Amino acid sequence: MSRIKVMTVFGTRPEAIKMAPVVLELAKYPEAITPVVAVTAQHREMLDQVLKLFRIAPDYDLDIMCKGQTLFDITCRAMSGLNQVLVKEKPDIVLVHGDTTTTFAGALAAFYHQTTVGHVEAGLRTGNKQSPFPEEMNRKLTGSLADMHFAPTMTARQNLLQENVDPGAVVVTGNTVIDALMATVDDGYHFTSRLLRHIDYANHKVILVTTHRRENLGEPMRHVYQALKEIVIDHADVEIVFPVHKNPLVRQVVQEELGELDRVHLIDPLDYQPFANLIARSYLVLTDSGGVQEEAPALGKPVLVLRDTTERPEAVAAGTVKLIGTDRDRVYAETRRLLIDGCEYHKMANAVNPYGDGQAARRIVTAILHKYGIVNSRPDEFAFY
């Protein structure tokens, strides 16, 4: 039996977290698969944290990150570097993940080489090409280039079918982030940070906050932080842990609004392992991130999303996530409701997670093996009811 060469391409921390289970699953089939891992390092330090955690050693590291990089820089440098890798390796299939600029560049480079493209976490849509920017168009353009679509949910599958994707090219797998979480969260986890070790998770309501979206920079973020300031002042049992994004535009406003408050802990971004375990010990999450909308519900934590749109509507429908935007009064009101209304809190906390069962990577690899005639059957598909 001839082996198939499967090349995975990723470049940011979120991609690495979600592709790590796939990389590890591919390695379980040495008789059938030759795996190749290529990273662009679109985000250098944050990517390295995840590679170390999951013990993944890339075969190719393009190391494209540069100070002040633009979307043009990332796209061009990634395309140029991946072209050289593709010329040398000649993979049978290239796997890209999600919605980053690396994702789109990887899919386009593979297409130019007439190489099969597999899109992990395919089919997410907001319907607004400006929100989130540039992720929505990265997803759509990658979807147009892909030959295999690994949709995390039935909603994502339906989005693809509405775009006339061949139903036979779509497999509903669940989201690989759930695979990663199950391998990472541990009730006995010991934080290395003294601050995180000494927070009173049992008696205080810890709110985990993350913000970074381009469309929220400036006044929208300021309004969110002003609402959080009022929450802390009005509720003596609340603590906020805020891993602050390294974007100086985010840091400046955070310091101005929250920097002098007791019970607000502004910390540097966390590695994935402590971050996942911090979610598990928090009471509530406020975020404008995409991935956290999947991770927190899997751990039974309500999520208030600081956006007006989401490409992850399943959690909204299930009741684990609520879209609240960035209006100061609404952020305050929705956060306060979950702090004082136990019924509302438990309704969100106990809703069923719609994103996966920890078997997504297995389904993805089985689908690839089936495509190339190595196994006889397609994988079972993930179903959320």
Automatic annotation (TrEMBL):
Q: What is its EC number?
A: 5.1.3.14
Name this polypeptide is given: UDP-N-acetylglucosamine 2-epimerase (non-hydrolyzing)
- Matching PANTHER family, A to Z? UDP-N-ACETYLGLUCOSAMINE 2-EPIMERASE
Domain of life, source organism: Bacteria
Q: Which SUPFAM superfamilies match?
A: UDP-Glycosyltransferase/glycogen phosphorylase
Q: Which UniProt keywords apply?
A: Isomerase
A GO MF annotation of the entry reads: UDP-N-acetylglucosamine 2-epimerase activity
InterPro entries to which the protein is assigned, alphabetical: UDP_GlcNAc_Epimerase_2_dom, WecB-like
Annotated coiled-coil positions are: none
- Entry's family note: Belongs to the UDP-N-acetylglucosamine 2-epimerase family.
Q: Write down the species.
A: Sporomusa termitida
Q: Which residues form the UDP-N-acetylglucosamine 2-epimerase domain?
A: 32-368
Q: One Pfam family of this protein, by short name?
A: Epimerase_2
